[in-house]
Amino acid sequence: MLETTIAAIGPLDEPAMTAARQLQARLTKPAGSLGTLEELSVRLAGLARSCPPPLPDPAAVAIFAGDHGVHAQRVTPWPQEVTAQMVGNFLAGGAVVNAFARQAGATVTVIDVGVANPLDTAPDPSGPAGSAGSDRDDVPRLVSATVRRGTRDMTVTAALTRDEARAAVEVGIRIAGELIDAGAAILVTGDMGIANTTPAAALIAAFTGADAAEATGRGTGVDDPTYQHKIEVVGAALRRHTPDPTDPLGVLAAVGGLEHAALTGLILGAAARRVPVLLDGVIAVSAALAAVAFAPDAVGAMVAGHRSAEPGATVALRRLGLTPLIDLGLRLGEGTGALLALPVVTGAVRVLHEVATFDSAGVAEK
Ligand SMILES: O=C(O)c1ccc[n+]([C@@H]2O[C@H](COP(=O)([O-])O)[C@@H](O)[C@H]2O)c1
Ligand SMILES: Cc1cc2nc[nH]c2cc1C
After folding, report:
1. Is 160 in contact with 252 (CB distance < 8 Å)?
2. Which end of the chain is more exposed for a tag (fewer CB within 10 A), N or C?
3. 196-250: per-residue pLDDT in tens?
4. Which domains does the chain carry?
5. How many other β-carbons are positioned within 10 Å of the β-carbon of residue 253?
6. Which residue of 192, 198, 218, 331 sits with most ligand 2 atoms within 8 Å of its CB, as the best mutation to test the pocket?
């Protein structure tokens, strides 16, 4: 499944991109006045192989949840149980991602690929928090696709076996296919996993060659001594495994996480179906680096929703050559920054569908 998905990923379609550039030049606005949105609309036309490309509606958020053996190294102040508890919150509709998804009209699917603690998924008799008036279709959905109940501690041994990493990637590919088959026109990445900014930093360092200090951030907000310790943990894991960036499955297995690997699969699955994938924060962009290591053309399907405050996100975005659409200092994850960027993507495409040309509107050109 991984190999066939990689084989299905191809370059952007040049004729559709040329058509989009030519249409942009005829629309009633000064050339280039929509800045980044113009190039985004061209890219999305190339991805869809049509001009105009379809509007990115409806959107589907896929939140992959997993736990991390490296939590034992005290790289985060939060207890591991919070991963399972936040999954319960997503399913009850009470997290920030749910509020933003309701605002964007996006569905929310939570995929348990490796949560260590039991999930409390009993329905709340009072109904989903904050979702008054929503119909059944808007209720967040849980998919149980546990590969293992959390990774191993990457400072001691490989976080995953190659088979486990592959299984998690293939969960992501399967979810991409299911969401697209159900009608999603854009996929939005989400993640939940206490301690997951540590493997994200290690992945970014492994794929870009950045050192541990450049790739590592404060995650949920660690104090100065813990931050220094976290950089050492990332550095120690990299020294132990010396991951080979040309072997993405090996890198994901050595220093990755189950949600990172599943997000890699989601991105590859979207790219293979030529559907855009809106990237959220540092966990998503670390997975995106693995995706381009599998299939360089996968970058054509990626839209960087926002610039996470985590420094590793900027390192990864630079390597991917992606300009984030918004930069608001967010560092929450869950898909929140990407969802806020969704109207920008929609706007970029809507212009190609709806804006009059100089000819049709009788507006004089310079
Ligand atoms: O999306 C981001 O860039 C981001 C930055 C910092 C923290 N997070 C979220 O916070 C959790 C990981 O933080 P930590 O400090 O426990 O590694 C995990 O659930 C992530 O979704 C996410
Ligand atoms: C409360 C909380 C909510 C989150 N959402 C994503 N990561 C998170 C981490 C914590 C700690």
Report:
1. yes
2. C
3. 999 999 999 999 999 999 999 999 998 999 999 999 999 999 999 999 999 999 9
4. 55-344 (3.40.50.10210)
5. 24
6. 192
